[in-house]
Amino acid sequence: MPIRAFLFDLDGVIVDTAIYHYQAWKRLANELGFDISEEFNEQLKGVSRMDSLDLILAHGGLTLSDEKKNELAAQKNQWYLELVSRMTSDDILPGVATFFSQVRKAGLQTALGSVSKNAPLILERIGMADAFDAIIDGTKITKGKPDPEVFTKGAAELEVSPAECVVFEDAVAGVEAGKRGGMFVVGLGSPDVLTQADLVAPSLNDLTVDQVLTKAQ
Ligand code: B16
Ligand code: MG
């Protein structure tokens, strides 16, 4: 089936906000009396705010009330917003602008598929608010990755079938979401980590639209 749409994750694909999520979560863990490593952080990528907090608290051996958890999640988000509010178009990852111009020339549709509730703010900060035909973010979904909802909703909004879509993801949970949604998935990162992806490259800077279409259709 011909490919008609490309669906992009935000954190780690368009911009490197993963580092800011990590810094804010690490600060929270430290205040709670333990630490999280970069290796542990891998499993938080693409996972919703509350699910991430649950994983972190379990890692630190803590059980807290829902009220306390809401307070901690709000604190982490405040620290995260302080970090991302300084972002500009300089934070767009290498190769994204060139790749997007190839996408447009190829006549493909685009959607953002991010579980982040802060996605619209980040797109605004980096000057990409108008770069997508559809935007699905954390406010529009009920289930985070690895559930496929964020991508199947993107396909539905673009009025294309899952088999006509390619997903671009940097996270294990996001690659799984794309595969469960019935889509061709390009993993951006290491093939040793993104084992479920159909094609893996270090970043969008290492791919052309033609290369992806040749593999996907
Ligand atoms: P927020 P993505 C995800 O975004 C991040 O990878 C993940 O680390 C974060 O916890 C999640 O968004 C929720 O973000 O707290 O801003 O709502 O990778 O799906 O673009
Ligand atoms: Mg990501």
Automatic annotation (TrEMBL):
Which residues does the Swiss-Prot or TrEMBL record annotate as the active site? 9 (nucleophile), 11 (proton donor/acceptor)
Which InterPro entries does the entry mention?
B-phosphoglucomutase_hydrolase, Beta-PGM, Beta-PGM-like, HAD-like_sf, HAD-SF_hydro_IA, HAD_sf, PGP-like_dom2
A GO term, aspect molecular function: beta-phosphoglucomutase activity
- Look up the EC number in the record and give it: 5.4.2.6
**Cofactor(s) this protein requires:** Mg(2+)
Q: Which residues bind substrate?
A: 9-11, 25, 44-49, 52, 76, 114-118, 145
Which keywords does this chain's UniProt record carry? Carbohydrate metabolism, Isomerase, Magnesium, Metal-binding, Phosphoprotein
For this protein, what does the record note about how its cofactor is bound?
Binds 2 magnesium ions per subunit.
Q: Which reaction does it catalyse?
A: beta-D-glucose 1-phosphate = beta-D-glucose 6-phosphate
UniProt keyword Acetylation present: no
Q: Where does Mg(2+) bind?
A: 9, 11, 169-170
Name any Gene Ontology BP term.
carbohydrate metabolic process
Q: Where along the sequence does the record put site: Important for catalytic activity and assists the phosphoryl transfer reaction to Asp8 by balancing charge and orienting the reacting groups? A: 114, 145
Pfam families reported for this sequence: Hydrolase
NCBIfam families in alphabetical order = bPGM (TIGR01990), HAD-SF-IA-v3 (TIGR01509), PGMB-YQAB-SF (TIGR02009)
Family the entry assigns = Belongs to the HAD-like hydrolase superfamily. CbbY/CbbZ/Gph/YieH family.
Q: What is this protein called?
A: Beta-phosphoglucomutase
Q: Which lineage is the organism of this entry classified under, starting from the top rank?
A: Bacteria, Pseudomonadati, Bacteroidota, Cytophagia, Cytophagales
